[in-house]
Amino acid sequence: MTGTVDTSAYPAHRPASPPLRVLRSLRDRALDARDTVLGRHDPLVPPRRLVLVGSSQDEFRAIGQQWVETFASQCGLGRFDRVLDIGCGIGRVAAGLARYLDELGSYEGMDVVPAGIEWCRRSITPRYPNFRFQLSDVHNAEYNPTGRVHASQYRFPWRDGEFDFVFLTSAFTHMLPRDVENYLGEIARVMRPGARCVITYFLLNDASRAQLARGEVQPGREFRHEMDGCLAVHRDNPAIAVAYPEPVVHELYERHRLRILKTHYGAWCGTPGARHIQDYVVAEKRPGADAGLGAA
């Protein structure tokens, strides 16, 4: 697969007005019903009314498949790995992984959006019993207002050293420093020594800062507001999109004994030939690292 597709798990803008949401829901339900009648429905792709990534079901499918190809070809994902997906959404990558992982491999997905987890449990797990999904009890004003735990204090519900491969796509790009610090510590804790993680960011370095200064970044990526060591697009709602200085990210990885293997820069700031919109960092848990380091 070629080309660049967006990696945003959820819309990087404010929600549509209620009347517009109603119209979109009616349209999407009609199109879903038509596809069912015509036999065009892919059981691993959610109905249009639930798709928050991309503008169509085809793009939803393409985003997930492109990440699976990236993980397998550039990041060391194996078919027998035990995989953890933090911020799994409505299963965009899980659907592609279901066709890639061997039945001896396994997948755990976690998200704060109840509707996404419910759909994945109902539509993916019965077909692939080695794929499981959990709703995290993390408070999110828009997606999980009843969550009881702050992201900066949340402990993942898995044992130390349990996973071979962990990934987050468009999660840290919506999280503030204390939350990122805790999550990265938890990621390191649940990785076995030698395991790999892939995490997407908007990274601030000399090249991206120059692009920002010239206004040569994608719309919605105009990071200008200082927020406790990071830059946000919107001061009043920083979680819409957050960028981190690359040296700060490096220090954080070193603190949790994660060795950065490769950083791939994204198209958001004009990187030629970029495969994905966001930057992504591939790292390995250092052999012999304390499995409990960074635990909450």
Q: Which whole number gives the mean pLDDT? A: 86
Number of separate structural domains: 1
Proportion in helices:
25-40%
Give the spatial strand order of the biggest sheet. 3-2-1-4-5-11-10
The amount of beta strand, in percent, is 15-25%
Overall outline: globular
Description:
- There is one protein chain.
- With 296 residues, the chain is of the alpha/beta class.
- It has one domain (54-285): Rossmann fold, CATH 3.40.50.150.
- The protein is 30% helix and 20% strand.
- The chain contains 7 helices and 11 strands.
- It has helices at 18-38, 57-74, 92-98, 114-123, 177-190, 206-214, 246-255, and strands at 82-86, 106-111, 131-135, 163-168, 191-201, 203-204, 225-227, 230-232, 242-245, 258-264, 279-285.
- The strands form 2 sheets. It has a 7-stranded mixed sheet with strand order 3-2-1-4-5-11-10, sandwiched between helices. A 4-stranded mixed sheet has the order 6-9-8-7.
- β2, α4 (114-123) and β3 (131-135) form a beta-alpha-beta unit.
- α2 crosses α3.
- The longest helix is centred in the N-terminal third of the chain and has 21 residues, at 18-38.
- The chain starts with 17 loop residues before the first helix and ends in an 11-residue tail after the last strand.
- The relative contact order is 0.13.
